Amino acid sequence: MDRRQIMQVLAAAGARPQHRFGQNFMIDQRVLSAVVEAGQLSPGDTVLEVGPGVGNLTSRIAARAGRVLAVDIDEPLMRAAASHWRDLTNIRWLHADALAGKHKLDPQMLDELRSLHAKATGSLKLIANLPYNAASPLIAELLTLCWHEQQRNVFQTPSNPATPRLIFERLIFTVQWEVAQRMAAPPDCADYGALGILMQLLASVRIIRSIEPGAFWPPPKVRSALVEVIVQPARFGAISDIEQLTLVLRGIFAHRRQNLVNAIRHGLKPQDMAAIVSALNAANINPASRPGTLTPSDFIGLSQILAK
Fold it and tell me: How many domains does the chain have?
C-alpha cells in the first residue's frame, strides 16, 4: 500500500494517524519485504501482529503464514483495515490493547492466540511494526510469557487435553533505533541495562538493519531499526524465578551510576547487606563493581543470592 491507499483506509474509518497510539504506517516496499523475509514464514506458522494499522504488513504476512492474529487498540481503524483485507480469510482481527497493564499481556489476546496456534503445524512468531510507546514492555512480557509457558506442566488426559504452549520461535519487529541498541547492547557500554539483559538471557538479539524516517508515513522524528529476537528455550532452565530476576534488574539499574553494593542497597533495600556482600564475594562477583560491567549470567547468580 502507498500513501494514497493508506489515506483511503483512514478515510473509511473516519480517522487519521494517532500520535497517542504511536501510529506511523510503513510505506517503503523494500522495508516491508525485509520485515517479512526476516520472519522466515511457512504455511504452518501462527503469527501475532501488534499494531497492524491499515494492514499493509498484515497482508504480506498472511500471504505466507497459516494464521495471523492482528491486534489493534484503535477499533475504527482496525475495522476499516479488516474490511479492506476481507478476502484474506486467515487473518483474525482483534480489538484489544496487547498490554493489559504495565507488566501484563491482554488475556483475550493470549486466549485467541492459543486457539489459533492449536491448529498450527509450524512455529509461533511475532512480526510487527510496533508502536514505539509499547515496544519495550511488550517484548519483555512476551519473552517472560515464553519462560512461564516452558515451566508449566501440562497433563494430557481425555478430560483435560493439553493446550499448546505459547513459546515464540522468533520475534521480528521495528522499533526506535535507541531502544534497539539497548536491547542488543553488550556489557560495559552506555546502552547496557535491564531490558537488554533480560532479553539476552532468554534469546539471541540482533539488529538487522537501520530504517530511515521516510520509510513511514507520517515519518517519525527518529530513526528506527529492524530487530531479530530468536528465543532460546534451552537457556530458560538457568533462571529459577523470572519475576525475582526482573525485580533485581530494575532495582539495580535504577541506580546504575553507583557501585553494585550501593545499587542493591538503594534499589532493593535488603535487610542484611553484610550477608549479601559475603555471598557476592563467594560467587566471585565484585561488590565494588559497576552494575554495567556484569555479564547477563552474573545477574542470574545475583538474583539467586538476593532471593535468599
Answer: 2
